[in-house]
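STRUCTURE:
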């Protein structure tokens, strides 16, 4: 499953937001009805994973963790404790709970950023600031990552 695009939306007073139609179409084509939402590990945004990808990620994490190691148990506990199942309602909306909205600094304006196999939800202004900060180095970063030299 691959997502592409950058979409804007608005939350309502209850924290509901319409999942953009192009993203819903990808999910429908793959017969995916459930997403998993969690806070991003590195940025102030939320991440939506198709449930199949979420299960793959947990399987990979489990291969690296020892269930008999207390530190490993704590890592797994923290990772899954923040996750919640999300389904679109009959109108194509998802609900963002208040705690997650506060974490991502979401007030009203939301941007859905499709990042290949998952979707990030950002406060519009926070994402714009984040992208402006990283914009000048994008070309050189990609060149360095891809091993290209001039």
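SEQUENCE:
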């Amino acid at each position: 499953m691959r997502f592409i695009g950058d979409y804007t939306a608005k939350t309502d007073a209850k924290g509901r937001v319409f999942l953009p139609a192009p993203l819903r179409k990808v999910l429908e084509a793959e017969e995916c009805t459930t997403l998993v939402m969690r806070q991003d590990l590195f940025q102030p945004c939320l991440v939506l994973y198709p449930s199949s990808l979420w299960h793959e990620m947990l399987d990979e994490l489990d291969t690296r963790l020892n269930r008999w190691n207390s530190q490993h148990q704590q890592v797994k506990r923290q990772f899954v404790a923040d996750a919640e199942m999300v389904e679109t309602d009959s109108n194509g909306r998802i609900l963002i709970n208040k705690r997650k909205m506060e974490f991502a600094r979401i007030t009203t304006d939301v941007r859905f950023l499709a990042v290949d196999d998952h979707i990030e939800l950002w406060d519009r202004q926070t994402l714009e600031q984040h992208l402006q900060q990283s914009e000048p180095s994008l070309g050189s970063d990609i060149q360095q990552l891809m091993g290209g030299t001039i």
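REMARK: The chain has a mean pLDDT of 92.
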